[in-house]
Amino acid sequence: MNTQANQIQLSSDSKVWIFTPDRKLNQSEVVSIQDELSEFSIQWVSHGNSLSATGILLYEYFPVMAVDNAAYTASGCSIDSMHRFMQTLGLKYSTDFMGRKVFQYLDDNKSLHLIRQEEIKNALNNGQITSSTLFFDNTVSTLDELKSNWVKPLDTFWLMRII
User: Which end of the chain lies in a sparser environment, N or C, as judged by fewer CB atoms within 10 Å?
Assistant: First the structure.
């Protein structure tokens, strides 16, 4: 179970979006981005209705937006506004939060590392990572999945099929 994800206090079927910067964030960026995520989640609306949402930075790296669908669901327009918000943050902090070619893993000391897709095969061959290295599966879509199935060994991660 992912203890960091336990910070999100919404229902287990809440929808989540995980964003991944293409570089590690410095400490002042972490503080600022967390504040901006929190502020956005408070103001986030769908068709004029306030959403029960949380914006949080997990592992001082992953911006995560979560919305509890019990009251109001995030509509297409509200999801678009979230993506525009993340693009604006990307411009402000000179990083791409929408990239899909950078993956994240934890080493034996639980330190977060970034690796580009084209580097994974070589890293596996030279022992930098192994089939049991813990990777983050940012395709999870519910809070329950985030808490239970976000971090997994490479050999059970969909990425292994394309290496």
Answer: N
pLDDT of amino acid 5: 74
Alpha carbon of residue 2 to chain centroid = 13
| 145 shares its domain with 86 | no
* pLDDT at residue 150 is higher than 70: yes
Q: How many CB atoms lie within 10 A of CB 119?
A: 15
pTM: 0.91
For the segment 135-143, the average pLDDT, to the nearest whole number, is 95
* CA 54 – CA 51 distance, rounded (Å): 9
Contact between 103 and 135 under an 8 Å Cβ cutoff? The reply is: yes
In a domain, 148, yes or no: yes
